[in-house]
Amino acid sequence: MATDVEETLKRIQAHKGVIGIIVVNAEGIPIRTSLDNSTTVQYANLLTNLTMKARSVVRDIDPQNDLTFLRVRSKKHEILVAPEKDYLLITIQNPSET
Amino acid sequence: MPPKAMGKGKQAGASDISRRRTTRMRDGDDMTDIGDGTENDDWMHSKALVKPDDQLDLSEQQLKEEFTRILTANNPHAPQNIVRYSFKERQYKQISSVDQLAIHFALDGNMLHKDSDEARRQMAKLGMPDAVQSEHAGSEGGEGAGAGAAEGEDQQKEEGKDEGREDAATPAPAAAAGGKKLTNQFNYSERASQTYNNPYRERGTATEPPPRATFSGNVTQWEIFDAYNEDFEKQYQAMKAKQVQKTPSVYLHHHQLIQEKNKEKKVVPGRQAEEKTRKKLTITETQSDDVTRIQNAAQIVERMVNQNTYDDIAQDFKYWDDPSDEYRENEGTLLPLWRFTFEKAKKLAVTSLCWNPKYKDLFAVSFGSYDFMKQGNGMILFYSLKNPSFPEFIYETDSGLMCLDVHPEHPYLVVVGFYDGSVGVFNVERKEPVHRCTAKNGKHTDPVWQVRWQKDDLENNHNFYSISSDGRIVQWTIIKNELIYQDVIQLTLPEAPAEGPDGTKVSTVGCGTAFDFHRSNDYMFLVGTEEGKIHTCSKAYSSQFLDTNLAHNMAVYQVRWNPWHPNIYITCSADWSVKIWEVSDKTTVDTNSENTENVSTRKPLFHFDLNNSVGDVAWAPYSSTVFAAVTADGKVFVYDLNVNKYEPLCEQMVAVKKKTKLTHIEFNPVYPIIIVGDDRGNVTSLKLSPNLKKMPKEKKGQPAMDPAQREALEQAKLDKLLNMVRDPPADVSKAPAATEKK
Q1: Are the Cβ atoms of A1 and B218 closer than 8 angstroms?
Q2: Interface residue A14 vs chain B (CB under 8 A)
Q3: Which end of chain A has less neighbouring CB within 10 Å, N or C?
Q4: Nearest to B668 by CA among B356, B340, B242, B425
Q5: pTM higher than 0.90 for the full model?
Q6: What is the residue-wise DSSP string for B563-589?
């Protein structure tokens, strides 16, 4: 099981245009990352807050609903956030890379 | 100056005086001047009352009325109802007694009590000059005495002097009796002493502050919902536990449960359904392993990343329709979408494709080898359209796989047929095959070319059919986790048994290569053989065919029933042709297998020559007249009989490299795409252009067609075509029909 997940994460990391991935646990601490420490901590903190807010929005409108994923697309790249229970998987990709 | 004037003046004066007197008297009438005693009568009248003009005229009676006037001590100017706000009673309340004191005159005096401070101060100021003078007189005398003593004895009696001075000084203040101390240089000395003041030290203690934690809470709609859910779960568990113990009261608890469910508006079944619709991954959440928890998220992110990379393809898949199709009526195109490749499968050929009946974006691919000499291992890959770069499930097998089928009701069960003749059943949730038949267990002696799931039998056991080159069609049933086989039919050749080496007769057996079950009459199925024959068979008759059709000159690679019309089927073969047939009315049972007379030599309804060996043919699910075929030269052909009965609407080279043969093709049941497999392990998906996916148009205003209506429509469409093409009845000459075909 763990190896499957590991392989999936490796594949994502190796995918075209992906700059880095971060796995954040329930306490907001990044447990696995492919970026440098300061960037990781920054992304982890900011995105945890944003994800909580987004989930709150979705569930406030309909409590039976839940957030599946969050995409923040900017000029330079796209941040993909997939929440799972309390964990977060953050990926930063540059979608226009050929 | 003139004395005349003076005299006149005097005279005038005298007369004036008398005149003045009279005027004075007249004035005296009004002014009651009693000064002149000579006017006695006049002062009587001077009492006339003066009446103002606006005085009330009252009658005598009214004038005599007595009014009582009470003299009270009340101040008439004092307000009678002063109201104050009472904070105690929070309202305005009238003050009971009002101060009635009226001050008429106040004069501030300037007398002080003599014992007051101010008086003393003043007295001191005033009394001092007096006291000083008197004391000076007294002190001078004292000083003279002191000075005399000082001259005599200087040093020794300094103290005495001081004392003397002090003594002299003390009576002086005593004499002043409470007055100020006299301060002169002779008998005044001031002594001061200061106590030792301890230096101030600040001392404090600070206790360790109690541990503080910031606590904040949010209350939102969903938090309330979650809290209720949790509570409900707990209650449900408790109920369940009770249920296990006390079975008689099951109904009561159940009822209570339902009531609670209604009250709290849970959608527990909704959530369960949500969980079911997730992919069938084993979700074992181990708390300890951090990375495992992220599995679903990882899958989602992988798909998102892929979507980003293949964004343009995804957009095309969803929205793009070839606009040039409007101008080309009889032509269509195939737009290549994703290409699915896998490293380990590069040397293998795609041997079968199957869409998952439940998840419309998931398909299964089996890999093996068609080459007799080069046989290696096989693979099963499950791909999702959402993730074109990596398969969802991977299974490796030791022998090449030839065919694959996904169970319609249980999409996690997959049956495969191996090149070595065995069949296996895979459960997607597990890694190893669930069943694998062995040599003792009915394994075929030749490659299994096709397998197909059937409906569960009467005991709800899963079962499937397989067909192989060894001429057997076998039914396998899974009873209590075991595969049990049963030969259904043997494909016997009608020729005379061949002579064996030692003279024994060896009955030759035909090789089955394909079969297809009728969609509504489950017991009827078609079998295609390597000799090019199509047999119509029934599950009930195990030794005889219902019908035999000499369809092709070479092996039949695929036979398929039309999804809409019950009597039409299509076949494709290595002899470069695709033919469409109709089941003949006379389904006479061929009693004599050696008798070739009854073998129908009918002509196909449609016959297409595709210039190369046709690997696979498939009907489109959305129309009864559309089908597609793939050939060994890498082309895909799409036909729509409604539009053009003789030529394909689309003939497109799909394979990337030359000399790749396309082996299989399948239409997606929902989306307008087809997947094509080739012999290099690639699966390509293509989108059909609008001309190729013409569906019956619904008239505006009418409700959508239900399946029965649609079916009838499709059948009618096909029948119309067929009527033009069918052989007319025997009495009419066949010539016109023949010319029509060309």
Answers
A1: no
A2: no
A3: C
A4: B356
A5: no
A6: SS-TTEEEEEETTSEEEEEE--S----
